[in-house]
Amino acid sequence: MKTNFDLSPRWSTAWSGTDIVVRRNASEVDRLHAPDIRRIVFVQAAGAQGSADPAFALVELEAEFVVFPTETGFAGRVHFERQAFWAAKACTYWTNTVTARLPTHCLRRRGFMLARRSPRYGRVPRAELDALVDQWLIEGPCSWDERRWQRFERSMPFAHIDTRRDTMPSRLQEPQQG
């Protein structure tokens, strides 16, 4: 009998009631109670435009963080499923890979020894990540659509100018005599 070593596990996430179930090769490895989620931080490359582009997601719970690499499909659970739940919770935040770094024990090598390290799935105690996450430049809370529109508005020429201001010089008024 030949042993099959799967060097690239297949990750997935799915809803089960109010829980998000994490599976690796079809076996359940973890479960998060969605109402317990305090904050979700999606980390994207600085130039990324699509909602499917996050490098990883960091989920903040009461006592710990959970790192979700892209291949888990977690971003799709937040962006495209139960949108009313996430909108009411207002817990979705964004940052980029330039400011958001993870400690080495939260990363794994892909491919050869000199290959880039990428985030790996796992739970990390708050004490290990709190100070690091506090240094990240985080924007939000906002949904993917809200963020997309904000980025679009900022990219427009003269977006920084407030067009509601009166651009005409004000006339000098005669002082009232009384």
How would you describe the overall organization of this protein?
The protein is built from four helices and ten strands; from the N terminus they run ββββββααββββαα. By secondary structure, it is α+β, with helices and mostly antiparallel strands. The protein has one domain. The longest helix is centred in the last third of the chain and has 12 residues. The model has no long low-confidence stretch (mean pLDDT about 80).
Summarize this structure as a short list of keywords or feature phrases.
alpha+beta; 10 strands; globular; three-stranded antiparallel beta sheet; 178 residues; single chain; five-stranded mixed beta sheet
Brief overview:
The chain is α+β, with helices and mostly antiparallel strands and 178 residues long. The chain has helices at residues 74-79, 83-89, 126-134, 144-155; strands spanning 11-16, 19-24, 27-33, 39-44, 54-60, 64-69, 92-96, 107-109, 117-119, 122-125.
Write the topology of this structure.
Elements: E1 11-16, E2 19-24, E3 27-33, E4 39-44, E5 54-60, E6 64-69, H1 74-79, H2 83-89, E7 92-96, E8 107-109, E9 117-119, E10 122-125, H3 126-134, H4 144-155
Parallel strand pairs: 4-7
Antiparallel strand pairs: 1-2, 2-3, 4-5, 5-6, 6-10, 8-9
Task: Summarize the helix and strand pattern as letters.
Answer: EEEEEEHHEEEEHH
Residues in helix, %: 10-25%
Order of strands, widest sheet? 7-4-5-6-10
Structural class: alpha+beta
